Predict the 3D structure of the following.
Amino acid sequence: AINIFLPASIIAIICQFAGGWLSDFIKLKYFLLFYMFAMLVTTTGLFLLTNHPVPYWLIITGNGISWGMYVLLVAVTWPRYYGLKNLGAISGYALSWMVIGSALGPYFFSLSYEYTGSFDTVAISIFSVSFLLFILAFRVNNPVRK
């Protein structure tokens, strides 16, 4: 585990630092696209997982980038788009959904392994959802303020 999480965390720190600086100059939409692309890389590595080193590096790179972009998107999106007035309520609501999603992930992985003997089913499902969200992210725009 240390061979995956340590290099991924280093990549995440670099991406978070660089992304935090760049977020003053670049639309958040592009960080979302980068995040979703990293999710596609991670799930591709998961699906191809063997003793070969390439899938491990896909997982390490994808996780590192997605972790860094996730922290950036969670920290910057709500105050930038909706202001500071109701930041606690908005971020609390969003965090509730993140916790629910975090609980469902391991459950789906265990179901996949229990019924099929592998994680391929859930990896393909996650890849499909990530690909759909990646395509839809091109249509994302800033909310209109009145």
User: Anything to note?
Assistant: The chain has a mean pLDDT of 92. The chain has five helices and no strands. The helical segments are 2-22, 28-47, 53-82, 87-116, 120-137. The CA atoms of residues 43 and 123 lie 6 Å apart.
